[in-house]
Amino acid sequence: MASEQDVRAQLQRAGQDHLLRFWADLAPESRAALLAELASLEPDALREHCQRASAACAQVPGPLPDLEARLQPLPPELVGSAIRCDLETRLRWEEEGFRQIALNKVAVLLLAGGQGTRLGVTYPKGMYQVGLPSQKTLYQLQAERIRRVEQLAGQRLGTHCTVPWYIMTSEFTLGPTIKFFKEHDFFHLDPANVVLFEQRMLPAVTFEGKAILERKDKVAMAPDGNGGLYSALADHQILEDMKQRGVEFVHVYCVDNILVRLADPAFIGFCVLRGADCGAKVVEKAYPEEPVGVVCQVDGVPQVVEYSEISPETAGLRGADGSLLYNAGNICNHFFTRDFLDMVTREFEPLLKLHVAVKKVPYVDEEGNLVKPLRPNGIKMEKFVFDVFQFAKNFVAFEVSREEEFSPLKNADTASRDNPSTSRRALLTQHYRWALQAGAHFLDVHGVQLPEQSGEEALSFLPNGDPPALCEISPLVSYSGEGLEKYLQGRILQSPFLLDEDQARLLQPQEC
Known about the structure:
The protein is α/β, with parallel strands linked by helices. It has helices at residues 4-14, 28-39, 43-58, 87-102, 138-157, 174-183, 229-235, 238-245, 265-273, 312-315, 338-348, 402-405, 420-437, 485-488, 501-507; strands spanning 71-72, 79-81, 106-111, 165-169, 194-198, 201-203, 205-206, 213-215, 218-219, 221-223, 249-254, 278-284, 294-298, 301-305, 328-337, 355-359, 363-364, 370-371, 378-382, 395-399, 441-443, 471-473, 492-494, 497-499.
């Protein structure tokens, strides 16, 4: 282990010797832990990191002055749509996707390294319950979607297949996530097919360019963003594991989208048939100022431009059909070939830029007292997973319905959007819609039959924002609304209604 003198010399070289200012106060075990942490921070890289963070934070935010002339929407030939395509085309995409899944060539990769700070919890977001009748967590919903898509693909091609689940965690989320999965028996997935790995951490930095101490014996560290995926893949030989399993295509997604379709056969099939090495699901922006990144082209190269980088005038531009010109909202839902990921990790990862995130970072003051700041006081530098789009040889985008596939959980219920209530309502509204389409009828909570309406009329919300009847359908029964007619057609259901595996067996499938 490095000595105190060696570490002091390294920190002085990096301009960060304040990190040892409480050395005299520390017990031997605390000194050893701090030395081990500091010795891992290469001095030149630490100095550059802190200087870069401070300089980047000092830049004036707002639209980039030279961007407007370089910006273009994605050409139509690069975009497919699950909404606007004909049924035959969609079925062809799904058939190809199911085929690749049945051949064991598809894996899913979950980005789950972030802390739930904005949500107001101290545990990983995947463990969160939004208040569904089943009380399922995000992790359980996702695990069950994997099991269902494996089942559907296997039934179609008469095989037994596996979709491995790779989960990128961080120092904060790895331990709790492993414990949670073990406590829940990996949600009946084979533990050998659930691979957890950890992304790198970077020091949090003050606005003056000093690394922050969160305790006398510990530097404040933060995950290096979802773009830390690429270095983590190399650190833990994840691509080698994929190769041994025969995986060729990887669906990457973020933990907080309650509607995410894991290994979506339509998305996988579209990308494979187009020969894409990189793809992104997008949703139509709800309004010009919506705070989501836009998938577009800059200098003819695909990338995501953050909403804050585009002027209001450009964000509001409309095409000949009246729709927003820059309307492809990024939802952190991507397709990659394994070969593309291998190329990125070997050649392009060092070229990814770091982005500034200004956060409230707990720290110890000069007297050694813990301070929990009320306003942002520090900088966390992050890489973004989508910054690799520029390196793709054949990039495509795939438009999907927001109502069917995107409802993120970002904030506590005190916020007006992207909170537990909006996530719960999005899922329950989707399932109520599926049940109506399958021919079900509902009684409300008072036992009164709801009017038999169709379309948007049937989805008129109650005053609290919930659908007219509460209906939850287990992913183990239906992945995307398929097969529900045999259980629900012509049935009158009491709200709240939960269609899980046990209830499906009780209902006895009907002839349709």
